[in-house]
Amino acid sequence: MSLHVPNLPEAEIHVWQLPWDSDAASSSSIRDLLAAYAGPDAPEVDRGEHGKPLFRGQASMLGFSWSHSRDTALFAVGRGPLGFEVGVDVERVRPRVRAIELAQRFFAPAETEWLKRFTGDDLLDGFLALWTAKEAVLKAHGGGLVYGLHRVGFAPDGYYLAPADFDGDIGPASAWQVGKLELGEGLVGSVAWRGESRSVRVFTFPV
């Protein structure tokens, strides 16, 4: 499939929202998007130490990531220095009666205390905002959930989550940008990248 995508300057991150199901067509759409951004001379996709898909060599200036939840997927892509890291995560909103219990298990104490200020839908939104922000960073880094949600700490301020305490080789937190995505009702998503601030543009697939 020949797919036209917008020009991707280094000052932007592009995020595509697309339908997802278990058939091959959904995976094919993501491959088509990646191929359109990478160009005809791109090498084969390789895997990092923990299984993260990536390009090697000069092609690693193009970073990419994808995530899916139920019927929706996100694909994020950006250009930067060699080994550019970008990650994205999406969650479909559904009741989570154990949100505080999960936060106490996987989040930092200050993050859990922040969540305890909320109830009902506000609690769920806050929990998912934190979860997706953490996962987006972990996917960009490549360590995934195995690296540990607790090692990616945020300083909540209202509904804004500022990177605050990133542990190990994922740090320092000041080197990262994390943004909440506006995806429509019933979805919460975040995108993260290591580097300077950029504009995030969200597109809907198919074009």
Overall SS class: alpha+beta
User: Count the strands?
Assistant: 11
Number of helices: 5
Mean pLDDT: 91
- What is the CATH class designation? Alpha Beta
Largest sheet: 4 strands, mixed
CA-CA gap between termini:
13 Å
Shape: globular
Number of separate structural domains? 1
CATH architecture: Alpha-Beta Complex
CATH superfamily: 4'-phosphopantetheinyl transferase domain
Give the low-confidence spans.
none
Q: Order of helices and strands, N to C?
A: EHEEEEEHHHHEEEEE
- Strand portion, in percent? 25-35%
* CATH-derived topology: Ribosomal Protein L22, Chain A
Read across the widest sheet, the strand sequence of neighbours is 4-5-1-11
Keyphrases for this structure?
single chain; 207 residues; alpha+beta; Ribosomal Protein L22, Chain A; globular
Protein model, in words:
The protein is of the alpha+beta class. The chain has a single domain (12-204), classed as 4'-phosphopantetheinyl transferase domain (Ribosomal Protein L22, Chain A, Alpha-Beta Complex), CATH 3.90.470.20. It has 5 helices and 11 strands, in the order βαβββββααααβββββ. The chain has helices at residues 24-38, 99-106, 109-115, 120-141, 144-147; strands at residues 12-19, 46-47, 53-54, 62-69, 72-79, 86-92, 152-157, 160-166, 176-181, 187-194, 199-204. Strands 4-5-1-11 form a 4-stranded mixed beta sheet, with helices on one face. A 3-stranded antiparallel beta sheet has the order 6-10-9. Strand 9 and strand 10 (187-194) form a beta hairpin. The longest helix is centred in the middle third of the chain and has 22 residues, at 120-141. The chain is globular. The chain starts with 11 loop residues before the first strand and ends with a strand.
